[in-house]
Design goal:
oxidoreductase; zinc ion binding; cytoplasm; ADH-like_N
């Protein structure tokens, strides 16, 4: 392309300080360096993780910054040493990566790459620690190595999944974070058998994706647990058949579920980050074969407490990161599930806004009105 090797000037939504509306700015995006690619972002979506770091709650604030990590786009140019991607490829940038060389990448059982594992503190690129974004010579920090709230971004090639060019980027862009996290927690980790019962704790975007995984797997009963009853009607679209609001019961929710299911569910997936929900999700699975999977991120001082007999009675407790999907190897296959009509993405997308109105996406999420809001770049 004619822009190869050149600085690109484009629009980006910059966060100058915590909790303040993003500001549309003209930024300069430097060419990709070694093992990097520059991507023209066509569609991006807002994830709760963006909001969490935008609010700067509980971590070191790093501003000014360009957020965004769920997106779809087209490779504009590639840096030195990039052999598996070329200009014109349709891609999803991903917040975690796959270098292909470390013990985790060589293991069939792990997706937690030593080099490119999620890092929320890093504001520059791995190659040299520098930012590829600037305004009037002042560097703007990256976020999760993706920074997709910009018309162009630079990403390490190990964090870029090449996908089917026929796949609509305005739909499959949501595959690159929350959807795959929940879907994979069920399909890859809990692995319910056809006809089994599955409990989903938390019916936000990740929980609904976990329910979608249970639906795809052919679960017989999908029980949704949430403190917000407004979520129950929406969750029916994702295969959830029964609902439990812990506030409506005077006994522990694990006991309520055990009574509903003749001793406990076959599988449970926890998607809240609440330590109480994690313990409940484990204790509500059936002895002998029950498997509980933890997805939500707890507070740093939380401690998981349960009686050892719950484990000795042959219940299994597992954790997962990004649904156990390897970004480059496995995410193209998730896109194919959508293309083959196994996976339904449209029902996750509740709102669409032009890039110029990106702050509306934050409003929808803060009010609890959206599952996913697609942001159309160049609009």
């Amino acid at each position: 392309m004619s822009t190869t090797g050149q600085i690109i000037r484009c629009k980006a939504a910059v966060c100058w300080e915590a909790g303040k509306p993003l500001v549309m700015e003209e930024v300069e995006v430097a060419p990709p360096q070694k093992h990097e690619v520059r991507i023209k972002i066509l569609f991006t979506s807002l994830c709760h993780t963006d909001v969490y770091f935008w609010e700067a709650k509980g971590q070191t604030p790093l501003f000014p910054r360009i957020f965004g990590h769920e997106a779809g786009g087209i490779v504009e140019s590639v840096g030195e040493g990039v052999t598996d991607l070329q200009p014109g490829d349709h891609v999803l940038p991903i917040f975690t990566g796959e270098c292909g060389d470390c013990p985790h990448c060589h293991s069939e059982e792990s997706n937690m790459c030593d080099l490119l594992r999620i890092n929320t503190e890093r504001g520059g690129m791995i190659h040299d620690g520098e930012s590829r974004f600037s305004i009037n010579g002042k560097p703007i920090h990256h976020f999760l190595g993706t920074s997709t709230f910009s018309e162009y971004t630079v990403v390490h090639s190990g964090q870029v999944a090449k996908i089917n060019p026929e796949a609509p980027l305005d739909k499959v862009c949501i595959v690159s974070c929350g959807l795959s996290t929940g879907l994979g927690a069920t399909l890859n980790v809990a692995k319910p058998k056809k006809g089994q019962s599955v409990a989903i704790f938390g019916l936000g975007a990740v929980g609904l994706a976990a329910a979608e995984g249970a639906r795809i797997a052919g679960a017989g009963r999908i029980i949704g647990i949430d403190l917000n009853p407004k979520r129950f009607e929406e969750a029916k679209k994702f295969g959830v058949t029964e609902f439990v609001n812990p506030r409506e019961h005077d006994k522990p929710v694990q006991q309520v579920i055990a009574e509903m299911t003749d001793g406990g569910v076959d599988r449970s997936v926890e998607c809240t980050g609440s330590i109480q929900a994690m313990i409940q999700a484990f204790e509500c699975v059936h002895d002998g074969w029950g498997v509980a999977v933890l997805v939500g991120v707890p507070s740093k001082d939380d401690a998981f407490k349960t009686h050892p007999m719950n484990l000795l009675n042959e219940r299994t407790l597992k954790g997962t990161f990004f649904g156990n999907y390897k970004p480059k190897t496995d995410i193209p296959g998730v896109v194919e599930k959508y293309m083959n009509k196994e996976l339904e993405l449209e029902k996750f997308i509740t709102h669409t806004v032009p890039f110029s109105e990106i702050n509306k996406a934050f409003d929808y999420m803060l009010k609890g009105e959206s599952i996913r809001c697609i942001i159309t770049m160049g609009a």
